[in-house]
Amino acid sequence: LRFPERRPDKSATSGPVSPHGAAAARGAGGRRRPEQSGARGTRAGSGRGASAPARPVAAGPPSRFPPSLPLRARAPAQLPAMLGEAETGEPPFGSAKAEGRKAAPCGDEELPPARYALESVSPERYYLQSPGPPGAELGGGPCSLFPYAAAQPGAVYQPPAAPRYPYGPVLAPGGFAGAVCPPGARYGQVFLCNRPLWLKFHRHQTEMIITKQGRRMFPFLSFNITGLNPTAHYNVFVEVVLADPNHWRFQGGKWVTCGKADNNMQGNKVYVHPESPNTGAHWMRQEISFGKLKLTNNKGANNNNAQMIVLQSLHKYQPRLHIVEVTEDGVEDLNDSSKTQTFIFPETQFIAVTAYQNTDITQLKIDHNPFAKGFRDNYDSMYTASENDRLTPSPTDSPRSHQIVPGARYSVQPFFQEQFVNNLPPGRFYNGERAVPQANGLLSPQQGEEVASPPQRWFVTPVQQPGANKLDMNSYETEYSPSTLLPYGIKSLPLQTSHALGYYPDPTFPSMAGWGSRGSYQRKMTTGLPWTSRTSPPGFSEDQLSKEKVKEEIGSSWIETPPSIKSLDSNDSGVYTGACKRRRLSPSTSSNENSPTMKCEDINAEDYSKDTSKGMGYYAFYTSS
DNA sequence: CTTTTCACAGTCGCGCGGATGGGA
DNA sequence: TCCCATCCGCGCGACTGTGAAAAG
C-alpha cells in the first residue's frame, strides 16, 4: 500500500486545485468507505501495476515457462561465469532480495535479475566514437550509425586488462565483419522497431533522464526478431554499456567531451526481458519491448530492482540487445558461445542526464512521449481546435504511435481505409504525419503493396484502434502487428506465404491476427520495393540522417499541407521554436543552427534511396558467436 | 557555477463500488 | 423483490517535464 506522500490533498490547501483534489472535494469522501483503502491495499492483484500480469506478457500464457519457474532458480551459478567479468563475490543481485523489490506489473518477482544483473560487465568496454557534437560524430565515425557495430573494425575499445565478453566477444579483437556462423547454426535478425523515432532524437543527441527512483527510457527499446529457431528457447535482455570513454557536458548549446568517463561505475547494467526465457517462436511472434526498463543513478538500486539499470550522469551509453539460446530449463550452455547473439543499434546511443540539457530533446520528448502530454503548451488548442489547426497529435492518436510507429494501425489499414477516409478530415492526415513522422522510415506494408497510392501510409497513421489511447506500453504489444516492420527490409526469409491477406483471418482483430503468422510479413518483404533494401550503411553519416529526414519530408508531400505547417514540419526545431513556446532555451545555439535537417533541403529522394540501398538495413545482424 | 534532488501539476488507465436497468 | 450485468464516476498510482532549492 503506497501512501500519497507527495500527493497531499490539494483541495485542502491553497492554490490551484488539481482534478483529483476537486474530485475529492466534490465527493467529500462520500463514496469511498473506510474499508476501501484497506481492501485496495490488501488486494494483491488490485491497482494499476498489479493488473498488468493479467496481460499475456506478464501472466505468462505465451510463455512456456510458468512464473513458478524463475530463471534465477534454474542456473543461479552460471551467470557470473557467463558474464565473465571478475565478480566481486557479492551475492547476485536480486537473489533473496525479492522482499525489497518493488512489486512490478511485469511480474519481476519471477524475473531472473541475478542472472544478468551483474556489475562490471560493461564498463570496460567502449564503443569508440569521435568526440564532439552529434553531427560531427555522425559524420566522422565510421560506425556512428552502423546498426551492428560488431562488424566494424576497431569499433570497440577494450582496456587491455578487461576480460573478454564472456558470451564470446561481441567484437573480436580488432573487430570483424560478419559473424562466425557454425554450420547449421541459426541466427536471428533484429529490427529496431521505432528506429525513426530514435533517429529523430539521435539527430540532437539523445538524452535520457536518470533519477534515483528510476526513469523509463523514451524512446524505449523495441525490437522485432526474426530468424530464431521457433522451438529453441532464448533469453532476451538488454545491456547498457558505455559508448565512449568520455565524460560529456552540454556547453554552448552542444555536447562536448570533458574529461574521462568513470568506467568503474558499479551497478546493474542488464535488464532481462520479463518474458525470458521463451521460445524463438514467442520472441518472433511479437515485438519485444523494453518499455519498463528504467534508468537510475542510484547505485543501490541494483540490489532490489531488476528493472533498473544503473548509469552515470553525463556519460554516453550504448544499449545492446542480447539473445541467448538456453535449454528448456532456462539454462545456458556456457560452452557454446554460438548460442549468444548480440545486436547493437548505434542510433540508440544516449547521454544519461539528471536534467535535460538540450531543449530540442525536451521538446521531442514532450511531443512524442504520451506521458508528457500535459506539457504540450498548445494542448488545449490542439485538441479543441479544428483538426486542421492541430500541430501535434490528438490524444486519441495512440500514444504508442509516437513511440512505436509500426503499430497495428498500419496492418489493419486495408480493412478500415474507407472508414478512415470517411471519418477523418484531411488535416488530420497531415497531423498524423506530423505526429508520427517516423512512419516515413517505416513504410507501411500497404505502401509496399500499393506504391501508386502512397497517401495511404499517411492517413493511416492517426487512425485509432480500440483502446489506442492507452498509455500502457505492454498493451501495445497486443495490438502490434509484425507486418508493419517490413520496411526494415528483409528481402527473403524462410517463411513466406502467397496469400495476400493471410494474416488477416479476422478483421475484427487484425493486429492479433497479424501475430499468428509471419507469412505476410515475409511476403510483403519480398515486394522488392525500394524500401526493401532500405538500409543503414556502415557509415551512417549525418548526411544520411538528413536524408532520412528528407524521406520523411518527401513522404509527407503527397498531401496538400498548409504552408505554415509544412514549413514547420520541414524542420523539427522550427516546429518547436515556431509553434511551441519553449520552456527552456538552448544556450547560444538555436535549434536551427544545429539542426541537421536544415542541410537536407536539397537532397532529393533519388539520392536518398540510392544511398540507403547500400549496406544493411534497419536491423542488426548477429554479431557474435 | 554546475549538477542533482525534490515537490509539483498535469494526463492517463485501472479497479472499485454505486447506480441503473432488465429479467426471473 | 431479488439477482445479475452493465455503466459510470471517483480515487489512486504511474508517469511525465518543470522549476526552484539544495548539494557539490
TrEMBL record:
Keyword vocabulary terms for this entry: DNA-binding, Nucleus, Transcription, Transcription regulation
Naturally occurring in which organism (per UniProt): Nothoprocta perdicaria (Chilean tinamou)
Domain of life: Eukaryota
Protein's name according to its UniProt entry: Eomesodermin
Composition skew (Low complexity), residue ranges: 37-56, 586-597
SUPFAM superfamilies attached to this UniProt entry: p53-like transcription factors (SSF49417)
Coiled-coil annotated residue ranges, if any: none
PANTHER family: EOMESODERMIN HOMOLOG, T-BOX PROTEIN-RELATED
Keyword Hydrolase: no
CDD domains assigned to the protein according to its UniProt record, in alphabetical order: T-box_TBR2
Residue numbers spanned by region Disordered: 1-71, 85-111, 527-547, 560-599
T-box domain ranges (all copies): 192-377
Localization terms from the record: Nucleus
One example GO MF annotation: RNA polymerase II cis-regulatory region sequence-specific DNA binding
Amino acid composition bias (Basic and acidic residues), ranges on this chain: 1-10
